[in-house]
Amino acid sequence: MNSLIELLGMGPHGPYVWGSYLIVTVVLVWNVAAPLHRARKLREELRRQPQSGRRAP
Amino acid sequence: MWQWFHRLGSPPSFYRFAGALIPWLSAITVILIGAGLYGGLVLAPSDYQQGQGYRIIFVHVPSAWLSLFVYSSMAVAGVVALIWRMKVAEIWIAAAAPLGASFTFLALVTGSLWGKPMWGTYWVWDARLTSELVLLFLYLGVIALNNAIEDPRSAARACALLSIVGAINIPIIHYSVNWWYTLHQGPILADPANPTVHPSMLLPLLWMALGFTFYFFAVVLVRMRSELLDRERYSRWVEELFQP
Q: How much is the CA Rg of chain A, to the nearest whole Å?
């Protein structure tokens, strides 16, 4: 197993490795947060939505 | 089977089924990515040629795999949408395209961050990189088409068609490293019986690839549920769900 210092440093490639992981984390978290936010807003909207009167028989 | 397929094609059944599946998919995603990160960043040794830099593989390959998988799934959904006019298949394309685009973006960016220290450049116009960039534009094309056409059913047909036609790029990306001279390395799992990667590196890579796949399914189902509610907001089942 690598020591923690070595792991965090990643040698001369640190910025490339951690840069990659950072970008991936940001995009993956955003991909979860944005649809969850939309789902919550949509549910609130639907709860407030007046009866359409267009219900299928 | 056929009956199951039909039942899943009905929006209310799909909405409930997806809702029940999402927590399981999310839990499996967390476990797989957690195991993959621990195996890839802590347990796996450094590479004898690339040092620590090779660890980008654990996010690069899963992103690239998903970029191909998502587009292929959209092409299959496109066929289903065009032949059977199945609403759930249409919504799959609309919900998956932004996710596929983001995986393609991640494959390109992490690949370029890997390329700089190893090849000495962020970008080369070779077959693998260029065809992956074309894939990003195909995804953006589907997203733009979906937003540009107001009627959701017409938009879905156009998107289905573009997904099917664009799928020609998928084998090109996959075989580009064999067909043309390229800086990009060849497949590491060309022969699964004799992998060219040590198991201490291969296993975390597989966990991560699987984790990303489960992640995709969890998020695409969340997106599809919202899309269904939005499109069917005046239908009986949605009104009953929210205004009992």
A: 23
